Amino acid sequence: MSRTARQFVCQSCGAVHRKWMGQCEGCGAWNSIVEEAALEAAPKGLRQKGRALELKTLATEEPPPPRLPTGIGELDRVFGGGLVPGSAILVGGDPGVGKSTLALQTVAALAGQGAVCVYLSGEEAIDQVRLRARRLGLGQSAASLLAATNVGDAIATLEAAGRVDLVVVDSIQTMYLDSLDAAPGTVGQVRSSAYELIRFAKRSGAVLVLVGHVTKEGLIAGPRVLEHMVDTVLYFEGERGLQFRVLRAVKNRFGATDEIGVFEMTDRGLVEVANPSALFIGQRDPSVTGAVVLAGMEGTRPLLVEVQALVAPTSLATPRRAVVGWDGARLAMVLAVLDARCGLALGGSDVYLNIAGGLRIGEPAADLAVATALISSRLNVPVSPTTVAFGEIGLAGEVRPVSQMDARLREAAKLGFRRALVPALTEGRAPRADDLRIDSIAKLADLVDRVRDATARGSGRQRQAG
């Protein structure tokens, strides 16, 4: 088919423009519009007519296809119990975070169970992949290796191999189709290459894992439609200065979203962390102010992390607000509530907030823990190391209930905590946990008064002793 039409496509969002522009009107990206060839539409008389297909009912007695466990517990947790045959998975992450290491370890683990696995590398030669496998202790794995960037060659090789259970493509930005007049990595090539590979996976029943790069904003590079084409989207996160990595599911058609798996990067590859709560809270000094433990939820897993806050006098005309691991807009809201509803003068102070361990928290249940840390730092009163907190804060200063409160409290009690600051509920709905004292907070001002009373009692005891 002739290619006479030309179009201008944004490489960030895939929007099509009639002419070149410096800034994309769809996503606002600068210098992302590239001219590409478009296939000419077929004449009306040559268009293929559709054929009637058989309708299926939703109810069926056929059992679902069995999942394919990888043997890596944290990875199976994120997938929802294992890999689903015929599914397409997209894994994104920053350069050097360990995407290729995780993919190679998954291939080797499944190959060790007798599955037919193929690691398709578009960035490294076969010898380079073997060298990395030896460093990880996987040099004797039965997994097959393939170095190719042409999608047609790759699919023909996979079909000739017969049965294939798992195919890892590292990375999708290096693959291309001969039928498209565009460079690898462009929107058209990424979209079309992924479409052909997904068609092969659905047709053959193989699990397809696509490894993708991310942009400087932290999003997977390529068209946004790529995330809609796959069944599961995973983000592999981690700070460069820390050895811990978090695999997060942001989309999963076969399991829970926002589920996480925690790994530790070592010289022998990624090692799963069985108890991440004990990892993220670490050792705490009971005399330090502005620190409190949050009993959070990541998917179906309760996770305890330490929230650290520092309120300090400012020498600037505009006070500084620095946030690591939480939403800056959410922090501004909590500070406004503490100022307007609780009478704390925080508007003229620098505020620093940090989620220890390099973890990112996005749920509103962290509001009460953040507010407790800010109050502790502002009033210079330490919070007991055996105290956890969770709850959502409204603009009126009320503390609202959150989901799965019992699971949060059970995790806190299991790790030795003795007190919990929770939203106030009715008696019939009050959460329960053995060996854990529950302090219900209805208004944020009540929490401030309790901390102030504790300060006054402590000062009175000091005067009496003197």
Can you describe this structure?
The chain is an alpha/beta fold and 466 residues long. It folds into three domains: 5-40; 73-274, Rossmann fold, CATH 3.40.50.300; 278-458, Ribosomal Protein S5, domain 2 (2-Layer Sandwich). The chain has helices spanning 73-79, 99-111, 126-135, 151-160, 187-204, 225-229, 276-281, 328-342, 367-379, 405-414, 444-465, and strands at 5-10, 16-17, 33-38, 88-93, 117-121, 144-147, 166-170, 207-213, 232-237, 244-252, 260-266, 269-272, 291-298, 301-313, 321-324, 349-355, 387-389, 392-393, 399-400, 419-423, 437-441. Strands 6-5-7-8-4-9-10-11-12 form a nine-stranded mixed β-sheet, with helices on both faces. Helix 9 (367-379) packs parallel to helix 11 (444-465). The longest helix has 22 residues, at 444-465. The protein is globular, with a radius of gyration of 27 Å.
